[in-house]
Write a structure and sequence with these properties.
77% helix; mainly alpha; single chain; Growth Hormone, Chain: A; 0% strand
Length: 479
């Protein structure tokens, strides 16, 4: 295939202005804070501080994401069928951002002195409300990113901006570890009350930016203008979406990646505290975890543009294999780098993994609009909202299952919160073993599955050429 720059240069009409990419990417700051904070701080606050059984917490984390996932297809159908002068997505993005910020803060404002079941039910109820608000924001937000350009490479660029800017939100999550371990707070739980309110304000502020300053590509707007569009039923839209084999491969890769990562997400905290620090929760612990998180985010911000450039030369799938390989290497390094002899070595695996994982999600999200093009060629309908919703549904269902299992993985290792710093040697060993090997196995399987993905660059460009010719014939775009 001819890969000359002239042949594959992005047309000026398909280029998204820098400021618009920045505006869209800013919303990912809110998304990342919402998606990560509950998972990362549920165990430190509700288990380690308040004494709630980790199995109960895993059911809250998993159950709330199942609830979140079940509402996604409905939200996808709502946004696909919305018609307003602000477009199909942006009114919902604005509403979701405001509701999410308020409800996130509420999770951590629990009353003092509750029983174990009292804290459990507080976390359960507030999480269900929060993740409903998160759905209202996340589904139209993800769909909007698919509509900002119709060019194969420019779509990757839009997702790269989104991924890089998401790391600013990740900085905030990492900084929470430092904040809640400050001596001025009586406990991490007290620190989290204040951190939750500050993060809620950040969610609202950053979430509103794409609602006001990002918009769909001109061709999408032109298709909507002056045209009565029949509403697409939820059942029909869902059925036709899950028929596309390339999309099913993307979904399967997503599930494998999430299974490996989320099953051990809680173990990172416990391995650090009880293996590296012997159970002592000192300010140095908070500093190390904050530095580790920030270092990973800096690496991500540097790696994504490089891998995005590589994808212009070897395509999305080839670059995705490289990114997954980095993730496997980074996970394997956990066994030797998480060591009490030199705590700072624990930063290294996160640095190696983060670049690979960020590029992985960037490229996977950039591949979904290509499937939307294929679907439009077959059906004549564009369903970015439904594809976004089903992908989000798969993402969250995979995450939910993995999070439910994660509490049991911690228990299977032999960890007992009542033992404090006196954890058994076997418990430490199995926590480390699960933490290291589970992601290596599942990500390796995802790499094998990627080899079956059929929509390479040449095929995508053929589809887009056919779509352009059909739209010109129908008069939906200027010839």
């Amino acid at each position: 295939m001819d890969n000359s720059p002239d042949k594959h240069a992005t047309p000026s009409s398909d280029k998204v202005p820098f400021w618009r990419k920045m505006a869209y990417g800013s919303g990912m700051m809110s998304y990342v804070v919402m998606a990560r904070s509950c998972n990362q701080f549920a165990s430190p606050i509700f288990n380690d501080c308040m004494g709630v059984d980790p199995r109960l917490l895993s059911w809250v984390l998993g159950g709330s994401r199942i609830w979140d996932a079940l509402t996604d297809p409905f939200m996808g159908s709502v946004t696909d069928n919305t018609r307003s002068k602000w477009g199909r997505r942006r009114p919902w993005i604005a509403l979701g951002a405001m509701l999410s910020g308020i409800t996130f803060s509420a999770i951590w404002l629990f009353p003092a002195g509750l029983s174990e079941m009292g804290y459990f039910f507080w976390f359960l109820i507030t999480s269900l409300i929060f993740f409903l608000a998160f759905t209202v924001f996340s589904v139209p937000y993800m769909a909007l990113g698919m509509e900002m350009s119709s060019d194969y490479n420019e779509r990757t660029s839009v997702m790269a901006y989104r991924t890089v800017l998401s790391q600013v939100g990740a900085f905030a999550v990492s900084g929470i570890y430092w904040l809640i371990t400050l001596d001025r707070f009586e406990s991490m739980a007290e620190g989290m009350r204040y951190a939750g309110m500050m993060v809620g304000a950040l969610i609202i502020a950053m979430g509103l930016i794409p609602a006001f300053f990002a918009r769909e590509h001109d061709s999408i707007i032109e298709q909507q203008r002056g045209k009565v569009v029949a509403k697409i039923s939820l059942a029909k839209s869902f059925k036709e979406t899950i028929r596309e084999v390339p999309f099913l491969i993307i979904c399967a890769i997503t599930v494998l990646m999430l299974t490996g990562l989320m099953m051990v997400v809680q173990l990172g905290y416990y391995v650090t505290v009880y293996h590296i620090f012997g159970g002592e929760k000192t300010p140095f612990l908070g500093t190390l975890m904050a530095v580790g998180g920030i270092s990973s985010q800096v690496c991500t911000m540097l790696a994504v543009p490089v891998l995005t450039k590589i994808s212009r030369n070897i395509g999305k799938t080839g670059t995705l294999l490289i990114a997954m390989g980095l993730s496997v290497i980074g996970s394997a390094l956990k066994w030797v780098c998480f060591t009490p002899e030199n705590p700072w070595l624990s930063v290294i695996p996160g640095i190696v993994m983060s670049g690979g994982l960020a590029a992985t999600w960037t490229l996977i999200n950039a591949m979904i609009p290509d499937v939307v093009d294929l679907d439009e060629l077959k059906t004549g309908e564009r369903r970015e909202g439904m594809y976004s919703a089903v992908n989000s549904w798969v993402f969250k269902m995979g995450m939910s299952g993995a999070l439910i299992i994660s509490g049991y993985v911690l228990t299977w290792s032999g960890f007992d919160v009542a033992l404090g710093s006196e954890q058994t040697a076997d418990a430490i060993f199995y926590m480390r073993l699960f933490f290291t090997t589970i992601p290596v196995v599942t990500i390796s399987l995802a790499m094998l599955l990627l080899l079956l993905y059929p929509l390479k660059e040449g095929r995508v460009r053929e589809i887009q050429a056919q779509l352009k010719a059909r739209r010109e014939k129908e008069g939906t775009v200027e010839a």
